[in-house]
Amino acid sequence: MGKLWPVSVKGVVLDAEKRVLLLRNERREWELPGGRLEETETPEQCVVREISEESGWTAEAGPLLDTWVYEPLPGAKVLIVTYGCRLPENSPPPRLSHEHQEIALFPPEEIDSLTMPEGYKHSIRTWCRRGNEM
């Protein structure tokens, strides 16, 4: 049997101005909020929990956007699962947690210029193209 990969569930969250929530990690890359799927939760529960822990936002998981394999470090592969997420109106500004170096909101047109895995960019484009449906 081959090596099992960890699963990381990420969320594309847009604020009222349609800006994308991103976090800068220790590798100086921007990433979507999210994290490791725990044994007792569904992927949707995981993404909601992680968004809350990392930004203070109470989001709702929407549709599955994409799955892909990411290798952040040589030999360390992670299965990434991304969801489009909805944010209630009048949400407060996001707050930075201890898990990241920086937190920011970006207009979709700035995403391509950021240092970020292409898979995240694809998920952001997909959710923005759907017009934050549902």
From TrEMBL:
InterPro entries: Nudix_hydrolase, NUDIX_hydrolase-like_dom_sf, NUDIX_hydrolase_CS, NUDIX_hydrolase_dom. The keyword NAD does not apply. Its cofactor is Mg(2+). The keyword Hydrolase applies. It comes from the Bacteria. Keywords: Hydrolase. One of its GO terms (molecular function) is hydrolase activity. Residues 4-130 form the Nudix hydrolase domain. Belongs to the Nudix hydrolase family. This is NUDIX hydrolase.
